[in-house]
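Email to the structure team, subject: Transcriptional regulator model.

Hi all, the expression group asked for a predicted structure before they design truncation constructs. Nothing fancy, just the tokens so they can compare against earlier work. One-line instruction: predict Transcriptional regulator, return tokens.
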Amino acid sequence: MANMNDVSRLAGVSRGTVSNYINGARVRPAAQVKIEKAIKELHYVPNAAARTLKTNRSNYVVLIIPMVNTPFFAELSYRVQRTLKKYGYKMILCNSNSHPQEEIEYIQMAKMQKVAGIITMSYADIKELVPPGLPLVALEKKVTDAFPLIISDNYQGGCLAAAKLHELGANKLLFISKAPVKDVSLIREQGFNDYCEKKEIQHERFIAGDNDHFVDDFHKFITENLREKDFKYDGVFSDSDEYASDFWYLLLERGIAVPEEVQIIGFDAARVYPRQQIALSSIRQPVIEIAEQAVKGLREQLENDAVHDKSYQPLILPVTFVQGRTTKKAEK
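Reply from the structure team: attached below.
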């Protein structure tokens, strides 16, 4: 079994440099490339227990997300795990089920286990729970200015959805979602509304109830807004692919052609598997860049001993429109 001395000899660097790399300290880029190549060739696995004793932290990173059973969060989890692995870290995936108390319990667990850091999409008030010296990166919602925040441009995403629907011929637009509409969902809707107001486009909203049978509310709304087989709206935007897909299939059940009569745009455009063809036209979040920037934010804190005296500005990443089968193709 290969050891650190073997890696040092094959990489042509000192044992101390290899040790620094394994323990998360800064090394020269050229040396890092040689060490990574040697580790891969030798199938060297660092001793995690020894590393924990030396650095007072493990090589585990906790990722806290609201749920795992959606394409977006599944893709995000995968991308974070792959990015962490490149730098010698392992991921602990924690599903909070959108319950603040569960998030708090995971933070406490992370402290007890002396993890290397936390990446969290948290909606609980955790700023008092994160101890000095523990690296943390927030996704979507700010914890405090002392931690990096990575967020997609949700406002511009709402604007882009309205612009695309109108550009493709829709003139009576509708925003749909499920209560409560807050945080990033509210920002997405605001972008949609502001664009419609600016361009004087007719627009309305429908929000289903916060219950397990909210799809029934969508069904009732569609029924109430049908005249013969004509639906009142010809363009629909939702803050979630999930709700947009529900609405799409309900329209098809009523014999309403999509996209010929009604065009639909969702939000996320995540893929369950890499080759998957996007069926629902959607606003795509840059999942790969979110993962890379989150891990970069953690590593920078690790290299600087995570002193929380720096004030971070949110890093807002651009979104894009992905053409699916629910919007018309633009005329060339």
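The chain has three domains: 4-46, 54-151+287-317, 154-284. The chain has a mean pLDDT of 89. Ping us if the truncation boundaries need rechecking.
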